[in-house]
Amino acid sequence: MGCCDKLMTMAKKPINIAKGVTAVAVGKRYEFTDTRIRICHKCDKVKWIGRQIFCSICKCWIPAKARVEDEKCPEGRWSKEHLGTVGDSDHGREQNKSNTSINEVF
After folding, report:
1. DSSP 3-state of 61
2. Do the beta carbons of residue 95 and residue 33 sit within 8 Å?
3. What is the pTM of this model?
4. Would you state the torsion angle of the CA atoms of residues 90, 41, 1, 91, taken in this order, to the nearest 10 degrees?
5. DSSP character string of the chain
6. Are 64 and 24 in contact (CB under 8 A)?
7. Where in the chain are the domains?
8. Per-residue confidence (pLDDT) for residue 80, from 0 to 100
9. Which of 13, 22, 55, 77 can pair with 73 through a Cys bridge, CB separation 3.0 to 4.6 Å?
């Protein structure tokens, strides 16, 4: 990754944070959201503060980060191989809230 790529990534970070926090605030979820959060629950790099889960590597609040499609796990655990059932056509499609089971994290 060259210096320009790093600058673009740094410039997108605040936008992605805003997208993720907004998605949490309005209750928006995508088909990949719960899978990502479940992966994080099993990771030894998470930090719990009360009932909230944060990544100890990137310091992100997992419920927000998990809702932004182009965000990535710093350990590479959100790759398509790890997500399994999430295909290219599924990205971006909202999940029906009645099928969710991880509400206690939010």
Report:
1. strand
2. yes
3. 0.69
4. 10
5. --HHHHHHHHHHHHHHHHHHHHHHHHT--BTTHHHHHHHHHT-TTEEEETTEEEETTT--BHHHHTT-TT---TTSTTSHHHH-S--GGGTTPBPPGGG---GGG-
6. yes
7. 3-105
8. 74
9. 77
